[in-house]
Amino acid sequence: MAMVKTPQPTSRRGFLTRLWIGLGVVAFLQILATTVLSLLSGRKRSQTGQDQIIEVGKLSDFPPGSVTFIALGHLYLCHLDTGGFLAISRKCTHLGCAIPWVTERKQFECPCHASVFDITGKVLKSPAPRALDLYPISFKRNQVTINIGKSIKRSTFKTEQLAHPQELS
Ligand code: FES
User: Is 110:99 a contact under the CB 8 Å cutoff?
Assistant: First the structure.
């Protein structure tokens, strides 16, 4: 007499094996997607690192002691009383809030967590961990130009960061 084999219900072990394989596939796809996205964003980052020169005005438009907001670059052009220019990012180095210049106190004051920076972008009060970023400045035929495509990170202010008009190019 022939024996008829009835289909067995899915065993617990078989179910768990299939579940783990399924989870492994999902994890692999997630890692693959993350890798592709990070490669694409890396390419985008290097594109924004390209030169992007803007003309912001004549030298005489920026007298010593002035701090001028340059909307196109989201930065401030600071002409120190002691001489020398700095193009300072308005993005706070703590969590990225836009920082206003407060003329009465002659300092940058972050509205988010109260970091304070002096006219050179140096931290006077934390939680900001480092000085505000800079952009390269050059002086061409009495015009001030700033390269807003190349921000420069720094820990603090140093006099060699100052750009001087006599360094004509
Ligand atoms: S974002 Fe400026 S202090 Fe936090």
Answer: yes
* Residue located nearest, by CA, to atom 1 of ligand 1: 95
Q: Is 80 in the pocket of ligand 1 (CB under 6 A)?
A: no
Alpha-carbon distance of 48 to 145, in angstroms, equals 18
Q: Structure pTM?
A: 0.70
**Separation of CA 99 and ligand 1 centre (Å):** 8
pLDDT tens for each residue of 96-155: 999 999 999 999 999 999 999 999 999 999 999 999 999 999 998 899 999 999 999 999
Pick the CATH number of 53-161 from 2.40.440.10, 1.10.10.60, 2.102.10.10, 1.10.540.10: 2.102.10.10
| Token pair listed for 25 | 């596939």
In DSSP terms, 137 is beta-bridged to 146
